[in-house]
Amino acid sequence: MKNIIEVHQLSKHFQVQKRQRGLAAMVGGLFSRDYRLIKAVDEVTFQIEPGELVGYLGPNGAGKSTTIKMLSGLLVPTSGSIMVNGFLPWKDRRKYVSGIGAVFGQRTTLWWDLPVIESLELLRFIYRIPSDRFHKNLSEFKQMLDMDSFMDIPVRALSLGQRMRADICAALLHDPVLLFFDEPTIGLDVVAKERIRRFIKEINATRGITMLLTTHDLSDVEKLCDRVIIIDHGKLLYDGKLNHLRTRFGGKRRLIVDFAEEYDQVNIDGATVTEHEGLRAMYEFERGTIAASELISRLSQKYRIVDLEVREPDIESTIRRIYEEKLLEV
Predict the structure, then answer these.
(1) Do 112 and 196 share a domain, yes or no?
(2) Distance (Å) of CA 225 to CA 9, 55, 149
(3) Domain endpoint, select from 237, 264, 295
(4) Strand partners, 47
(5) For residues 229 and 245, is the Cβ–Cβ distance under 8 A?
(6) Which of 176, 204, 237 is the last residue in one of the domains?
(7) What pTM, to 2 d.p., does this model score?
(8) Which residues of 289-309 are buried (b: 16+ CB within 10 A; e: fewer)?
(9) Is pLDDT of 48 > 70?
(10) Structural domain that includes position 286
């Protein structure tokens, strides 16, 4: 299968003027300036196949936004190669952008003072969307995103959740093959986040749109992405399955047990009791040292059990551990 995104040894460097301190240094800076080199993206390589939904992760300043700007044609790389949907993004920009969409959680692509429907109608002409396709897509997205109640309201008067739904609809009207999401659920309440996530997952599955998601809300990643790419200080640290990342770096697993009767001691070989109160106990055990099924078997031989639950470390704590302990340093 031909990749829709091909990135090889991609780099973007910036020269930033050094700050001068003291009056003499400031005066000297008027005649000669010193610069330092910032490697925002440093020899990054990855490929994305059509229909994939990939999480692109990293802390602030890691190089995520710079990468997205190069992928979308806003920045020209310093070195390396990049091909997206058969185009060089910064060179074939007019043709290229007709096949992609972008949703930015902190910025809107809609006209601030116009009603939502008028903004969408304008996009119809900008993208030259055939009337029948425009109305078919609009009808489908309005229903899926529950937009009927605010179609005639100016964008500036929308709630954050409503505006985000309108922006997602706008990004999809022209049937893009590739969609960039930048913080699509930032600032939204739990209900609004879940609605957006369900829509993204359904559109990805039913229409096969390739999606690259950057976010600091790792719940988005857990619920949407099978694959993640992690970048830090411009360097690629990890590219692979989310489950493999959790298995490799997730740390200790937890087993929560509800007993049929109270026991003074609920110790078991292979696990550590971290909490024990009344009929409930919580255990921690090392991944790879003992299987959950073996631990459950040992417990059931010693105690009467009503219910139990195995909990994996959440992805947020896993990613934090990778950064804090520098587990993936290159």
Answers:
(1) yes
(2) 24, 6, 31
(3) 237
(4) 6
(5) no
(6) 237
(7) 0.78
(8) ebebeebbeebeeebeeeebe
(9) yes
(10) 252-312
